[in-house]
Structure formats: C-alpha cells, structure tokens
Specification:
The protein is of the alpha+beta class and 495 residues long. The chain has 19 helices and 19 strands. The protein has 3 domains: 44 residues; 199 residues, Endonuclease Chain A (Endonuclease, Chain A); 161 residues, 2-Layer Sandwich (Endonuclease, Chain A).
C-alpha cells in the first residue's frame, strides 16, 4: 500500500475514535466496579453509558461518582479515630424487637444503645391535625429558649437555614449566647443554605463571635474538571446545648411557610428534644464533621465531665449517622431492619419515597407477614422526578396490602417510622437514593412504648386528614402516565 506524502496515516486518523472508545469502555468498567454500589445502580449506569455514549459518559462524570474528595474523606476518617467514645452508662436490656436493630446501629458508628434518656417530640399539644404549622412553630420556640439558657456551648447543624422569622429568631438567640461568652458553632450546608450564607445574618453571626462553617462548599476536581456529583450534601439536622440537651428530626431552621417554595407549603415536620446519655452521641456526630472541616481540636467535648444525667424511668435510644463515606448501604439496611422488626403494625411517613429494591421488597413483605403497614406521603411533591418515581411503586405496594395515604395540607416533611407502638426511627433521612447513599444524614432509634406512642399519635394525625389511595385508582392510570412513571422509576438508581 502506498501512502501519499502530506496525508495523515490511516491509523492516526482513527486515533481520536479509538481514544473515545477506550474512554467509553473505561467509564463503563468504572460504573461496574465502583465500591458501595447496588446491582440496580450498576445496571442502570451501564445501560445509560452504552446506549448514550457521549451523553452517558458526561452524565457519569457529573452524577455517577460519590466522592467528597480524598483529602476530606481522610480527614473524616482520622477524626473518627481520634474522637473518644461517648459515655455509655450501664443500660437495661432493650426489648427483643429492638436488640438486633441496635446491633446494626452500633456497626455503623460504634455508638451503643444507651438508657436513661428523656425524649420529647416537640409541638403544640392543642394543635388540631389541620393546623400543622403550630407544631413547627412550637419546636423552634423551644430550641430558642434552650439556647437562651446555654452556659457553655451551642452547636447547631442545619441543611437549610433561611433568613425568615424563625431563621432570624435563631440567629439572634445564638448571637446573644455568643456575646455572653458561650462558645457557639454553627454549621450549614453550602447549597441548602446558600441564600443565608450570602445574607447579612451570616455576617451578624460572625460579628457576634459565632464560629460559622458552610460545609461541602467545594467539589472534587481533576485539574479544572469537576468530577463526581455536584449535589452531595450535609443533610443533617442536629443541635447540642451544653452536652445536656440535643435536638434532632426533620425540621430545618425556617418558617413552615417556607417562602422559597411557598406553593408547596407548609412544611410539616417533627423535632425531638433529647436529654440524657444520647446527647453525647449527637455531640459525637456534630464534632465528627466540625473537627474534620475546621481542624479545631475539641474532641474532649464528647466525654467532658460532668457525667450525663440519667433519667428514671428512661428511654433506650441510639443515634447514628451515615454518608457517602459510610461503608455499605447503612441507611437502607436500618430502614429494612426496622420494617422487619415489626410484628403487628408499621406506620411510615416520608416526603421523598424512591426506595431501593431491598426497601421496596421489605415493605411489600410486611403485610404478607400479617403486619398492618401504613405509608403516608404528601399529595404534591416539590420534585416532579421524585413524584413520578414514587408513583411507580404504588401498584406493587397496594397489591401487597400496603395502605397508602396522601397528605393534602402541605409538604409532609416528617421522616418517621413507628413499629408495634414500641420502636420509633426518626431523623433527617428520606426513603430515596439521596438519603440512602449520597447525603450525610442522622437518625435516632427509640425503644420505648410511651415515646413511640406520642410519635405514632402525630402520625395518626397526618392519616386523619389524608386521602387513602385505592388500588383501582393506580390501575386506572393512563398508559402514558404509567410509562413515564415507570421509566423515571427505572432510572432512579442513576438519579
């Protein structure tokens, strides 16, 4: 074969295509081999990459990886190794139903179940079910009162902090505490609280002497190229005051009217006030992030004297936290374990319901085991994709015997499970992929009949104003609607 001078060699002309093909295969191989990925997620990503070569590769670079950066991951790991274990007073044995659940929780963060706690779901006891905002308002008012009584430190972490009435009320309380010598540390998510960080309130906190931190304000990079998901977030909601009081639940630092998304309002939430040994576990979770991000050496606060107050009779409880650096599918495993712990009744509330396969199967299995299973979801969701994926699960759930109720009075934002009026699981985590695999989350396991009954009463209030979904309704949805819903649901492991 003769080659003409000045013309490129045939092999050289094919080099760009060969390089693209090699990159295509390499990205597909990475999607297949990345650790902590479910088989469904692997299958979905390989399908996208192979069917849409260029678009799929770009999408994988933007959404497929869950790295928070090697340096940050290493700092988190080192911080967890340095943090002393929280004090754990001798505890009476948990109930037989909760024992295995607590063992699983201990495997996540090493935090043991502790007894002698007092846990109060905050709200207005006189508020009727059709006025849910009164519960959220009463919860923030209680938190502000406790901050006003703080003597040593105030630690607060919220995903969303808005500069509205409650946001300003909280900021003023923290500033007043800092001015009287209380060590105040405020941590917000850089994306969820982006408007607050740019507002005068952020400067007000700093001027008062509050130490502030916007977490995950950067993204992993390869040179100047962003690598990994841009939406990995710190979704935790936790506050610790003087190692005596902790707050956790679903509520952000914002008015229930949630003016940045007012057409879905009010946001309907739950916030728990905790006293006793479990407060040190909330402290442990807060400091694990704060120290890793700031380098401030305050590890001793976890175990600082005096010893935690112990209440009798007390509640057995356990705090745990998950995130993109947590091994396995810990949050999904805890949800599934809670569902299987139930023998008679399950009531579940969540705003974003896009379960993985294990969670969906556990829910479908519950009624078949004779467990009455009630799932309460908002009628209108502020995410169309999440809403479509959620609807794709209705038919199999209803066919299995799950009772689905749609809450019409706002965005039901409460993330809660009660099992057999004995066990409760409450926190920041939704039943969607973001909470199961991507976000930093914190949940509280409670083994106590009285506390669980109070939470269950709140759940039944939601049910009382909700509309039950009939199986025939889901079966009558038009073909086009079911096609879109199932397509979005199929791609949920990618989203």
């Amino acid at each position: 074969m003769t080659f003409h001078p000045g013309l490129p060699h045939p092999a050289l002309s094919q080099l760009p295509a060969l390089l693209l093909f090699a990159m295509h295969l390499g990205v597909a191989a990475r999607a297949l081999t990345r650790p902590n990925r479910t088989p469904a997620s692997r299958a979905a990503w390989v399908a996208v990459i192979m069917l849409l070569p260029l678009v799929g590769v770009v999408a994988y670079f933007l959404l497929g990886e869950t790295s928070i950066g090697r340096g940050r991951a290493q700092r988190l790991s080192e911080t967890l190794k340095r943090l002393p274990p929280p004090p754990a007073p001798a505890a009476h044995p948990p109930s037989s139903q909760a024992s295995a659940l607590f063992d699983l929780g201990r495997s996540i963060n090493g935090l043991a179940p502790v007894a002698g706690n007092r846990i109060t779901p905050l709200g207005d006891p006189h508020a009727p079910p059709d006025q849910p905002m009164r519960d959220s308002n009463a919860a923030i008012d209680t938190l502000v009162v406790d901050i006003a009584a703080a003597r040593e430190h105030v630690h607060i972490s919220f995903y969303i902090w808005l500069d509205d009435h409650h946001g300003g009320q909280m900021a003023d309380a923290v500033c007043a505490a800092a001015r009287r010598g209380v060590a105040c540390r405020v941590m917000v998510d850089a994306l969820g609280s982006r408007a607050f960080i740019r507002s005068p309130r952020w400067r007000q906190l700093q001027d008062a002497g509050v130490r502030v931190l916007a977490t995950l304000d950067d993204i992993p990079r390869l040179g100047h190229l962003a690598v990994g998901r841009l939406d990995l977030r710190n979704h935790r909601k936790v506050a610790v005051i003087d190692n005596r009081i902790a707050f956790c639940g679903s509520q952000n630092c914002a008015d229930p009217e949630f003016r940045v998304a007012a057409r879905f309002a009010p946001w309907v939430d739950i916030l728990l006030r905790c006293e006793g040994p479990v407060v040190r576990q909330a402290q442990h979770l807060f400091l694990s992030t704060w120290i890793a991000e700031t380098g401030e050496q305050i590890e001793s606060l976890v175990s600082a004297p005096p010893a935690p107050e112990v209440f009798a009779p007390g509640v057995v409880a356990q705090m745990f936290g998950t995130g993109p650096t947590t091994a396995g599918n810990a949050m999904s495993d805890m949800f599934v374990a809670t569902l299987y712990a139930a023998r008679h009744e399950l009531i579940i509330t969540t705003p974003y319901f896009v379960p993985d396969e294990a969670l969906l199967r556990a829910l479908c299995a519950a009624p078949r085991r004779g467990v009455r299973t009630v799932l309460v979801l908002p009628t209108r969701n502020n995410s169309k994709l999440v809403g479509a994926a959620c609807y794709s699960t209705y038919a199999p759930l209803l066919e299995a015997g799950v009772e689905i109720y749609e809450y019409p009075l706002g965005l039901l934002h409460t993330k809660s499970i009660t099992a057999d009026r004995q066990i409760a699981l409450v926190g920041s985590a939704n039943m969607d992929r973001r909470s199961l695999q991507l976000n930093f989350e914190n949940n509280l396991v409670i083994d106590d009949a009285a506390t669980s009954a109070t939470i269950r009463e709140r759940q039944l209030g939601y049910v009382s104003v909700s509309q039950r979904v009939a199986l025939d309704t889901a079966r009558r949805w038009p073909f086009g609607r079911r096609l879109v819903q199932n397509a979005v649901g199929m791609m949920a492991p990618v989203l």
